[in-house]
Specification:
Elements: E1 7-8, H1 18-22, H2 34-50, E2 58-64, H3 68-77, E3 84-89, H4 92-103, E4 108-112, H5 121-130, E5 134-140, E6 142-143, E7 148-149, H6 152-161, E8 165-169, E9 188-192, E10 203-209, H7 210-215, H8 228-238, H9 247-263, H10 265-286, E11 301-305, H11 314-322, E12 326-327, E13 329-330, E14 338-342, H12 349-365
Parallel strand pairs: 1-12, 3-4, 3-5, 5-8
Antiparallel strand pairs: 2-10, 6-7, 9-10, 11-14, 13-14
Helix pairs in contact: 2-9, 3-4, 5-6, 10-12, 11-12
Bound molecules: pyridoxal-5'-phosphate.
Length: 374
């Protein structure tokens, strides 16, 4: 089978290998079979290995849904009665957690920072000092909307000093930037299979402390489908998901994890980093400017300013690149017009060089001036 290879420069789903794509083509199976439960058992324990979580102390729970289901589940399931959640917010994905709180009418503090900067740790500490009823501190590891990497180890330590648990949305770093949940002070992290693991969309997972999940049995239940304890308990009892799992996506994820461990944590991190460097090199050469200080960038997402030229038209440039196998993605910063180039997926610096040839052509074809040729 010959499958066209597209280079996805959007922040997930990411470019996958053919072996991961083909892993989905399997004989039909009822997911209630013991054979399938066995696959999920291994998958759950490989997910713990991925973040260096001690088995037993931590557990992983699978859900059928896109990555946002994890945000919903963690927030609605882990807040005890009468307590508050503190959201350390410097962008669109942390704001999504705020929206979940609003939707469930949960007591929360939206500690808002500039979307162009990392959160100010003194302000986080001050908020925790002033609000002794905070039971959950929440912050994205990587604000995918801008490309900023947040200091989660420090935020997690502060949460723990104040007797709160720390939940981090690691959807856009897991499997790319090494994470050690113990050293990084993370009680709960999360991701979906189609980002760092380079599998397919439809499977999401939460990795977290078993004793906290067990304690949450006594917290108010706010959702039927999206409750962490109920899903955990069902896995423990039966080895299965409570409701129908995304069967084929699970096969793809198993293959993707196999390829992850073969490539290796450090080598994979280095590859994403090299792709990121190639993105910056290409932008510099074309005279396109970025928005975020490189010292605080994750190395996975680059926010690029629209060139200051009336001929610029994101849609036209997107379509030109798309027709040639490269997908670029709109930005998510309300105050600056940007598009994003990301280093997720099974892509290499050579792909980025090829992409910049195409992007350069698009600028010429539409007569778009940049800081370089303007
Ligand atoms: C991609 C992403 C999500 C999940 O988005 P879905 O569209 O639901 O898959 C959540 N948080 C972050 C930080 C992300 O990058």
């Amino acid at each position: 089978m010959n499958i066209k290879r597209n280079v996805l420069l959007n922040p997930g789903p990411a470019t996958t290998t053919d072996t991961v794509k083909l892993a989905q083509v399997v004989p039909d199976i009822c997911p209630r079979e013991k054979e399938f439960a066995g696959l999920m058992k291994k998958l759950r324990s490989d997910l713990l290995r991925l973040v260096h979580a001690p088995e037993g102390e931590y557990t992983s729970v699978l859900f059928c849904g896109s990555g946002t289901i994890n945000i919903d589940v963690c927030i609605n399931s882990l807040l005890p009665e009468g307590k508050k959640i503190l959201i350390v917010n410097n962008g669109a994905y942390n704001s999504r957690a705020v929206e979940v709180c609003e939707m469930y009418r949960l007591p929360h503090i939206n500690l808002q920072f500039s979307v162009y900067e990392q959160p100010d740790l003194d302000a986080v500490k001050a908020a925790l000092d002033a609000n002794t009823d905070v039971a959950v501190v929440y912050c994205c590891h990587h604000e995918t909307g801008t490309g900023i990497l947040n200091p989660i180890r420090e935020i997690g330590a502060m949460a723990h000093e104040h007797g709160a648990i720390f939940v981090s949305d690691t959807t856009s770093t897991l499997g790319m930037i090494p994470l050690n949940v113990v050293d990084d002070n993370v009680d709960f992290c999360m991701a979906s299979a189609q980002k760092g693991l380079m599998a397919m969309s439809g499977l999401s997972f939460i990795i977290g402390k078993t004793d906290i999940i067990k304690a949450s049995k006594n917290y108010p239940t706010r959702s039927y489908y999206c409750n962490l304890y109920l899903q955990y308990e069902y896995f423990e009892k039966t080895g299965e998901m409570h409701f129908t799992p995304p069967v084929q996506t699970i096969y793809a994820t198993i293959q993707a994890l196999k390829e992850y461990f073969e490539e290796g944590e450090a080598a994979k991190f280095a590859r994403h980093r090299a792709v990121y460097e190639a993105i910056h090199d290409g932008l510099d050469k074309l005279g396109l400017e970025t928005v975020i200080d490189r010292n605080i960038e994750s190395g996975l997402v680059v926010s690029v300013k629209y060139p200051d030229d009336p001929n610029w038209d994101f849609e036209k440039v997107h379509d030109y690149c798309y027709e040639r196998g490269f997908t670029i993605y709109p930005g998510k910063i309300s105050t600056t017009n940007t598009f994003r180039l990301c280093s997720l997926g099974k892509i290499f610096p050579k792909d980025i060089e090829d992409f910049f040839v195409v992007l350069g052509e698009a600028l010429d074809v539409y007569d778009i001036k940049t800081a370089r040729n303007g």
